[in-house]
Amino acid sequence: MEPGRRSRLALLTDLYQFTMAYGYWRAGRHWEPAEFELSFRRCPFQGGFALGAGLGECLAFLRGFSLSQADPRPPPDRAETRVRPDATGGASPTPALKHVSTQPGRLPWGSVKADIEYVRSALPSGTDEAFFDYLRTVDASEVTVAAVPEGSVVFPRVPLLQVKGPLLVVQLLESTLLCLVNYASLVATNAARFRLLAGPDKKLMEMGLRRAQGPDGALSASKYSYVGGFDFTSNVLAGQLYGIPVRGTVAHSYVVSFSALAEVQPRMLAPRAGGEPVDFPCLATTWLERACQLLRVPREGVNEGELAAFVSYAITFPCSFQGLVDTYSVMRSGVPNFCGVALALAQLGYRAIGVRLDSGDLARQAAAIRRMLRACSVQFQLPWFEAVPIAVSNDVSEQSLEAFGTEGSDIDMIGIGTHLVTCPQQPSLGCIYKLVQVNGRPRMKLTEEEEKMTLPGCKAAYRLRDAAGRPFMDLLALADESPPWAGQELEAWVLGASPEALRVIPAAVETLHRTYFKDGQVCEPLPSLPEVRSHAAASLRSLGPAHKRLREPEPYQVAMTEKLHVLLQTLRQASQ
Amino acid sequence: MEPGRRSRLALLTDLYQFTMAYGYWRAGRHWEPAEFELSFRRCPFQGGFALGAGLGECLAFLRGFSLSQADPRPPPDRAETRVRPDATGGASPTPALKHVSTQPGRLPWGSVKADIEYVRSALPSGTDEAFFDYLRTVDASEVTVAAVPEGSVVFPRVPLLQVKGPLLVVQLLESTLLCLVNYASLVATNAARFRLLAGPDKKLMEMGLRRAQGPDGALSASKYSYVGGFDFTSNVLAGQLYGIPVRGTVAHSYVVSFSALAEVQPRMLAPRAGGEPVDFPCLATTWLERACQLLRVPREGVNEGELAAFVSYAITFPCSFQGLVDTYSVMRSGVPNFCGVALALAQLGYRAIGVRLDSGDLARQAAAIRRMLRACSVQFQLPWFEAVPIAVSNDVSEQSLEAFGTEGSDIDMIGIGTHLVTCPQQPSLGCIYKLVQVNGRPRMKLTEEEEKMTLPGCKAAYRLRDAAGRPFMDLLALADESPPWAGQELEAWVLGASPEALRVIPAAVETLHRTYFKDGQVCEPLPSLPEVRSHAAASLRSLGPAHKRLREPEPYQVAMTEKLHVLLQTLRQASQ
């Protein structure tokens, strides 16, 4: 692979991975066949499910996995913060990376070492030079990855990824894979919870760019919120890169930047159907007076700067005028101004597309706004006017969304930022990546903390469904067991439940994992982002409502076959 | 600027910025001189201070700010997840970006539009084509940025950045600047709180890579935790890029990958001073027996796989052996095995560098481990042995760190991941970017929510210190007021306090903001990352202890001069 194609994420890992890699290499064990599983221990947000996400990015990382030897280019992950190395630009052959910034004109990038050289400097002196020669040859060409399809509903202890390959290589992949799956799955799950709460009809928009952990956190939030069921993002780059529909109108700064109607430029607007342009500020003023009269709002309390902002915006976007109504007083200024401008537009044949509200009690205000829109609709005989969509945002959380109650039915679209992207109820999923087999021997972590114990051996996982097609159990088996079949009576040891086996008869059995990566290549067609999103919706739809309750859900059963159960007991006893 | 140097972050913004930009342009207002302030409303974590961070990245973004016209390269921020477009690699001229992934071999990147073209597709049809011609010329060459030096202690309502320039341009910068400052400042502040809690002597290591919001979130966490007072990171890429010291040893997977001493390869280790190599597993076994006897631990309960892992690691890194002691039983296996191996090393002249503990009650176990180390130290006459550093990690939070109590004194190093990088106490800082002046007219947002109101006008900020050199007030003045001087009696209206003015006499006055960016260039020498870190430490040191209390701190005073106070009142009244 040419250097320009090398992934620069190989060093996005914890140092101990290299320490261990050296340990394995020194002991001649680096080639031993090993398998790790990536899973999580508990559903996030005290819920009953998670959506598995991040697989596509893991596969891309694997395809490019290798360590650079001498590469003076800045790493792409921060290349957007390059600076021109000098005032004239372009004079230097090595673009400067602006991180540990120095005096203007100095080149911090020049001092960043190539991967191998950097690892050498970070390991104890005396590390065998032949190890670094070996690292130069390392890539993912001998790695095999099986995974649950991206967007699937997943449960604790069931591996999202099964990563097989030479011990040293699969160990080195740990931190990066965790980094790529953890947040993706967490925020997709969070988005799915908002979708469940909002119901299928309300539009949901992700707007967390400014609250995420930097540029990449924000892009991940946009991408995986979309997977989880959001409709739009405010993030233009996410729209450009992923094709997610973007939305956005104006901010308060736009509104406050106007102070009087005299500032509005240009002033003329032609009717939609064509014809003589009219002086739109004048027309809007006339309609504002009528609206004030109808709504019993004192005309003198209406802010003129806000009116000017709305008028200017309407002239600019006559077919997509939306009013942000809470810069001053919502009811005494914002809504009357919106009605004045929207009715003036209506006279010219244009339909306003919405009202936006960004503070205060959103549901109560939305209901009041709807009443005012309805009054205008009746008075001025514009049936569509009462249905003008109301969009709200203001620190919306699961709790505030629940509190909307019946008044919330007047809300058409909800913008969610902080509580979506930062997942404050549980800001990390806590995925783990554990060795389950090495050199043909099943392994497990037998710690004193029961919950931190892992399940040994190479496994297969089956989703068992009832006659209605609802999944009721994920069954973990050893990989060499023959798969269960529909109608078979099975013994299952449910994790975290009584030590007795349960007898179940599935009406249908689905193999959970597919092999996605083999011989250094992606070997299974990957779905597009909208396909992943549809799969997530379908996967959630099939799940029983009791597992989807956001609070105190009924735990979904994850169980072991007898063989796996026996293996676990044997290894536990052997260590005691 | 050549295309290769263009920033690809220009579209990392909210769509409404472009909508507003078009509104301003259409109204002929895009060139109007405007000023925005970036600030926060409340200190994070219910604390009394924040550390301002992210400035260096903001400046780098500004230098490269412009929109691409036609650029088929993948954007650098995700370029690390490129995949080879086909199995042979290198055949295609355009590297594929692996995001909305499709069948292997398809090129999703090929469909990503250049910036300008994408913005055109996202705005309503009918948007004037001349606007896009104008966007092609937009950059930050007319923007001026003044800022508080990076790493400074900062307080609510005092601008971290003051951004001046043509209205359209400075509006477009909003979301990206917020994205770059918000998390940087939040995590630096969080790190500083951990440092205050841990005291100056314990070593603190950031290890949140797998819990952050993707690769960039993780790198930001490493970088700004270091600024806030951490000593190390586990993230190798952060070490490579930023020069932060990295640390790491082994994981449980390394320990469980061994099951018997027979697997240890190679077995021989020479004494440090030179001489005949010895069979190290044998030597360690002998010492393990002595240690078990001394510590009254049954020899048969000691796990042999763990012993093999320690022995192998010690042979690999004889000068830097550290034992991860909690894979099986800490007291009945991990510590005895550590002592056996470390004492065997000691016989050969090597000193073990530490014990690591990753589960259970960390402080209590550390105290018990210290007693065991002390017993060995006395029995085998190795004074240094009792001081072997104990490193701990396991979901450490502010609360658990506080709970360490006196037993915690036996802990030498603390690794913190989730609770550092995700800032669960408050996962976003909530910075805002508000218009304060346009075309010479001061502006403010006069909303019904008092806290969302902004302070109008171009301002200067002064930090007032008492005779002991402690800052006691940040005073906001209009930019055209003459600066206060040391010894002057000043009237100050404290924000959020009584409507009466306070009279204060500062012993010293410091101007808070410096101009960092002018004419498209960084115009002030930028400190290195270690310099930013030192500045943060010094800035925190000078702050009074009452403001640094982690719970219920005394609020630091932020006040206005009479002129600013009068302007605020005037604008409020004018809008009523």
From TrEMBL, chains A, B:
InterPro entries: Aldolase_TIM (IPR013785), NAPRTase_C (IPR041619), NAPRTase_N (IPR040727), Nic_PRibTrfase-Fam (IPR007229), Nic_PRibTrfase_pncB (IPR006405), Nicotinate_pribotase-like_C (IPR036068). Its EC number is 6.3.4.21. The keyword Signal does not apply. Residues 70-103 are annotated as: Disordered. Its cofactor is Mg(2+); Mn(2+). Pathway: Cofactor biosynthesis; NAD(+) biosynthesis; nicotinate D-ribonucleotide from nicotinate: step 1/1. It comes from the Eukaryota. Residues 11-71, 113-182 form the Nicotinate phosphoribosyltransferase N-terminal domain. Keywords: Glycosyltransferase, Ligase, Magnesium, Manganese, Metal-binding, Phosphoprotein, Pyridine nucleotide biosynthesis, Transferase. Catalyzes the first step in the biosynthesis of NAD from nicotinic acid, the ATP-dependent synthesis of beta-nicotinate D-ribonucleotide from nicotinate and 5-phospho-D-ribose 1-phosphate. Helps prevent cellular oxidative stress via its role in NAD biosynthesis. NCBIfam families: NAPRTase_put. Belongs to the NAPRTase family. This is Nicotinate phosphoribosyltransferase. It comes from Alligator mississippiensis.
